[in-house]
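Marked as duplicate of an earlier ticket. Keeping the data here for the record.
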Amino acid sequence: MKRRTSGTASGSMIVETAMWMPVFFLLIVGMLHLGEITYTYYVLSKIEYAAAQFLATQQGVDFCNQNYTAAINFAINDNTTGQPLVANLTPDMLQVTTQCIDPTTGVAGTCDTSECATGIGNPQTPAYITVSIPGGYAINPNIPYIQLPPIELMPSVTVPFGGSAL
């Protein structure tokens, strides 16, 4: 007959489990917040893509005026409710830049808008439109018992321009 062991084996198992539970809890919460940060980055990229695509497919875009508020508001807000898709994301956080191809070198660079001030001639038609968040979008990871600094998400989207300029 086998003798029954004392309760120390089961007692140590309870103590070990109690010691490892906070570690597992922190790992699970950390993974959830990492998923939240990744999802927020994805949503910000989709917002930028929507604004860039809106501008890239429009006809008669005035690149001298650089008034892109309609495209940015279209991308930031939900079409059905009008509410922002991401909390604390404002239109002034997004920046729209244009890139033109230099005919001599074939390299993409900043578009020349010097003719806009004179009103004579037309500005260059851009080859690409870039929408970015140069200041970043801060997201605070809230992991219990661990104080982390805010993470700045700075996605950027570039799409080819297919519309027409004024």
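See parent ticket for discussion. The CA atoms of residues 119 and 158 lie 28 Å apart.
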